[in-house]
Predict the structure of Radical SAM protein.
Amino acid sequence: MAENFAPWTAPGAIARPALQAGCGGPTGVAPIIQLHPTRLCNLACAHCYTSSGPRETQQLPLPLLRAVLDDAAALGYRQLAVSGGEPLLYEALPGLLQHARRLGMLTSLTSNGLLLSPQRWAAIAPHLDRLAISVDGRETTHDALRGQAGALARTLRLLAQPRATGTPFGFIFTLTQHNVDELEDVVGLAAAHGAQGVQVHPLTLHGRARETLAGARPDGQELLAAIVEAQRLAQALQTRSGVRVQVDALSQDQILAHRERLVPAWPAPGLTALAPVLVLQSDGQLLPLTHELPRALWLGSVHEAPLKALAARWLHSSASRRLVQALERTWQALAEGAQPAAYWYDEVAARVRPAEVHVPVPPLPSRGLMPRGPALAQGRAAQA
Ligand code: SF4
């Protein structure tokens, strides 16, 4: 699944979405918490960075996720993006979305779209602001990546559900080193089926993708080609179809122009300043920005402590300082012209020095000193 979905968050986000005035972070969105409540999936795609599949059972209980969202909202996160695994297989999904809405968060979901039955959709739609459907190219490409003949055709048929409820939806297209020529077809499908946007997200070489698609990560030239192609498609199609095309990449000009937004100060006033994207994996581990960062820079596990306590410890630890140092090194390298365009988070992860993988993280305060809400206590009980 893609990191997060944001084609509508910034009007005018066509082809240069990664840095928009008034947005909270380098991905062009307000602070967002990305939850992977389960790794269970009806598919086992070749490009899956969470190695999800039909036999994966790992998942997080709803009471624990409610407590995480309570803390996230208090820390300034304004959007919930649920991914997976296939989130439609997470039984408690309606309750999770409902809780985020009560906290004033925008809710979005990334799905392969194959399980959008009328019953499931009826339970989810009232609590959902945006739906993202993965569409990874022409029919043969999409179905081959998914390992299922007919997958794209079925997904497109089931888009009748969000169309019927008027829920805004868009496509996420995984960009590899070899498929920018398929973007036009995907944008054409988006226009034909009522999607409002297409988000072009570079392949992340993590999880299963690392084994199956090694060498397919798009380089700087390919990212620039995607940006140029998105601009061309926007000019050709936008006024006619209203479909926005967003590429999760920065040109070198953008990198030069927006240093202050890419490299935050340390110490930071709050977690959202250093981690405008906060990821919660299905194993309970919390990490800033992207799955690609080494474990030593993660915040820790929500099975061990509440998000608020993990954030307080991390913000004043050497881990957050070293993350900022890696952001600074990345900006320097890209500003000096190493490549014409870049997917910022992957570049940052690549520049975390090997020594930083072994940064010691200070211990948390004893449990008696930690703030523990009743919902979290319920979550732990449910796991016991
Ligand atoms: S549908 Fe998404 S979560 Fe499921 S295997 Fe494919 S990429 Fe992974």
About this structure: The chain has one domain: 1-384. The longest strand covers residues 169-175. The domain at 1-384 is CATH 3.20.20.70 (TIM Barrel). Residues 1-28, 357-361, 365-384 have pLDDT under 50 and may be disordered.
